[in-house]
Specification:
22-stranded antiparallel barrel, receptor, TonB-dependent receptor, iron transport, membrane
């Protein structure tokens, strides 16, 4: 060990702090008994492209590269591609996984808004539907332009720019411009009148220092049930300018998305109205009759269906990164970024009439986001040490409001409406985020043993202003000065290693539609003194191996989740009552993961992953004056078992893969008195690489079949929030999954 390095005590300080904060139980995971039968599933490309081992890492990490991403259905959310990895549970009501109202993504029981996401280091926020601080990855970039994805279950990278990372991080990286000039194109057609066109122009390397690309994407598809479409237009661009050992890179992306919603279902509605039930559109008169209490065709309430609903989102996001090699072993990377968003969620409501003659109005939730930020990371190699330090700062101006617009009959209202006749509430939030971190990585025993330790400090300040209505206003700050992380990696042999990590993380309070400011002022004032930011402590221990034809890893983990906040729905989603925001105390998670790839020969591979996850509430909570006895109950939307399997073939011009996924039972009530059953879902992909034909080269034709066996199942749960109890199955917070669908893609280069 070098004696010159002055930060040597940092490792000991952090390890000691983590030992005090961690809790016992990791060793018990191996003895946990699985009580659900498991089987298989996954959907991504040639399995050998998944870097199962994450070699050298002290954390549980898997990476998926461009080959894997390129051979799934074009337009598929990269989050759906990650569904094959251990610990990951992804659900969506559409075959692409891009319909945002239905997108549900979790890792080890931590839900979508409790994870961290970045694109080329630029924070994407928590990717919730009514997002206040970012945008969904499907809007941030076209799937064809993603070069790789890195998933860290549990302890995310210490320097990740995220204020929501409790249980892991997902980092997306743009496919770099190519050194060769050319045009890449792809055309997809398929079920439900799907048409997706993608074209990308690369400049090639100019004068040995500059290269760039510009791409355009146009997608049009009808819903698989009901009336309406889910359409998107995107432009992506990126450049790289190299000067000496340094580089300046930049990107600018634009998205315009319009999507018509599916009707939220309950278990009782599925039994009474059928799996394919949806909103009334285009039958305006039936919607009017229902609003007047005249029901037909099995309908028995206002909430069984509405005329229509939909979402509009426009986003522009860009960044510049300066990567400097300052001197031998010292590098500085700085990124500045800007994101501008405009959004409206439309819902035809029978609860607020336009006038005496028209019992329906169009209710909107309207959003704007304007955020600017900077990240900077310094890396310094000195002796056996690599020291990294960095900072992240962001100012976000977010406005949200609830408005009503008059309607008198069927019309195309999928545009940005103005001049409402009524406003329920309007709020503005100025959120200032600052984070810095310091880490020391130490290599010992001829690099056989690697130890890393460090900490970050995070401060998120929200200033909420109430413009219209009675929702809460005030200042709310979440900060932790010392969030430590430590880990080790020890190489037993050149092909075997053990690893372990521990981390402490915090999720800041959230402004916007679902946070503590969504309460009334009185409710906020009564509870703000006891309001604490959510925190978690994650511990991992694992083993990685690699043989000539087999590679994989096994890991056990535990997590303690403190001060878990719940926004409890108090009425039907369309009514939009102020929520109840409660602290449900502690959650304990224990689990085990295994993943392996067996390459039979040059052409065949077999991928498998298995997850056992036991997430339990450890504290009861009060909903007003009512005790909700959730202690010992399973966390909502946290299946105990996930099992994936996929066989992949690559032989000459032919490629194919057949995969299936098993998802265990999921509860949508905190008291576990109702949930949705386990299910299998299979997918097939096959293609043929054509010879170059005249002007076109590298042509390929690909067939994708989603939900191969046409399984009827409940996909997303909790779309209108989770319930304390729903013994009769009447909570409308579920979405049914898409049936079997077929898609054909032709792609190539010029």
């Amino acid at each position: 060990m070098s004696q010159r390095f002055p930060l040597k005590p940092l490792c000991l300080v952090v390890l000691q702090a983590l030992a005090c904060q961690a809790y016992a139980g990791t060793a018990d995971v191996a003895d946990a008994a699985a009580d659900d039968s498991a089987a298989a599933g996954a959907m991504a490309g040639p399995v050998q492209t998944v870097e199962i081992t994450g070699r050298g890492q002290s954390r549980q990490v898997q990476n998926i590269n461009k080959t894997d991403l390129a051979e799934v259905l074009p337009g598929t959310s990269p989050l759906k591609v990650l569904d094959k990895l251990p610990g990951v549970n992804f659900q969506s009501a559409d075959p692409f996984g891009a319909y945002e109202w239905s997108t549900s993504f979790s890792i080890r029981g931590f839900n979508q808004s409790q994870l961290g996401y970045t694109l080329d280091g630029v924070p994407l926020g928590d990717m919730s539907y009514g997002n206040n601080n970012g945008l969904h990855i499907s809007r941030a970039i076209s799937s064809e332009n993603i070069g790789s994805v890195s998933v860290s279950q549990g302890a995310g990278s210490l320097g990740t720019a995220s204020s929501s990372n409790l249980g892991g991080t997902v980092q997306f990286f743009t496919l770099a411009p190519t050194d060769e000039r050319g045009l890449t194109f792809a055309q997809t057609v398929g079920s439900d009148s799907t048409s997706r066109t993608f074209a990308r122009v690369d400049t090639g390397l100019i004068n040995g220092v500059f290269k760039a690309f510009l791409s355009g994407t146009r997608q049009r598809t009808d819903k698989w049930k009901g009336d309406g479409g889910q359409d998107q237009d995107q432009w992506n661009s990126r450049f790289v300018f190299n000067f000496g050992d340094n580089s300046l890179t930049g990107f600018l992306n634009y998205s315009d998305r319009k999507e018509i919603d599916y009707q939220d279902m309950s278990l009782e509605m599925v039994r009474r109205l059928g799996y394919n039930w949806d909103n009334y559109q285009p039958d305006w008169q039936r919607a009017v009759n229902a609003a007047k209490g005249v029901y037909t065709g099995g309908v028995n309430s206002l909430d069984d269906a509405y005329y229509s609903a939909g979402g509009l989102r426009k986003d522009t996001i860009g960044g510049l990164t300066l990567d400097l090699h300052l001197t031998q072993g010292v590098d500085l990377k700085t990124t500045i970024y800007h994101h501008d968003n405009k959004g409206q969620g439309h819902w035809y409501t029978p609860y607020v009439p336009t006038n005496a003659a028209n019992p329906i109005s169009l209710r909107t939730t309207e959003y704007t986001i304007n955020r600017d930020g900077v990240t900077s990371d310094l890396s310094w190699e000195i002796g056996d040490h690599t020291v990294t330090a960095g900072l992240w700062g962001e100012r976000n101006n977010h406005t949200a409001s609830r408005n009503y617009y008059g309607v008198t009959g069927p019309a195309d209202t999928m545009f940005y409406l103005t001049n409402p006749f009524a406003t329920d509430w309007k709020q503005n939030f100025i959120t200032t985020t600052s984070q810095y971190y310091l880490q020391d990585a130490l290599a010992l025993m001829d690099n056989k043993l690697k130890i890393n330790a460090g900490f970050k400090a995070l401060d998120v300040d929200i200033k909420a202003t109430n413009i219209v209505g009675t929702r809460a206003a005030g200042n709310l700050d979440a900060n932790k000065k010392f969030l430590p992380q430590a880990g080790f990696n020890y190489a037993l042999t050149s092909d075997d290693e053990v690893f372990g990590s521990a981390s402490k993380n915090m999720r800041a309070h959230q402004p916007g539609v679902g946070g503590p400011f969504s309460q009334t002022q009185a409710a906020y004032n009564a509870g703000v003194a006891n309001l604490k930011p959510e925190t978690s402590t994650n511990i991992d221990l694992g083993y990685r191996f690699k043989r000539a034809s087999l590679q994989g890893s096994v890991a056990v983990y535990s997590a303690r989740f403190d001060d878990r906040q719940l926004s409890v729905a108090t009425c039907a989603g369309i009514v939009g009552c102020p929520s109840t925001f409660v602290n449900v105390g502690k959650v304990d998670t224990k689990g085990a993961e295994a993943v392996a790839v067996w390459k039979f020969n040059r052409e065949f591979s077999w991928f498998n992953s298995y997850t056992f996850n036991d997430s339990k509430y450890k504290s009861n909570y009060m909903d007003g004056a009512t005790l909700v006895a959730v202690s010992g109950k399973t966390v909502v939307n946290a299946p105990r078992q996930l099992f994936n399997t996929e066989v992949s073939y690559e032989g000459g011009p032919v490629f194919a893969r057949l995969g299936a996924k098993y998802t265990g039972k999921r509860y949508y009530t905190y008291l576990n008195d109702n949930g949705v059953p386990s299910f299998w879902l299979a997918n097939l992909s096959a293609g043929y690489k054509l010879k170059s034909l005249g002007w076109a080269k590298e042509l390929s034709l690909q067939l994708n079949v989603t939900n191969l066996f046409d399984k009827q199942y409940i996909s997303t749960i909790g779309t209108n929030g989770f319930q304390a109890s729903d013994p009769n199955g009447t909570a409308q917070t579920l979405l049914t999954g898409a049936p079997r669908q077929f898609f054909l893609t032709l792609n190539g280069k010029l």
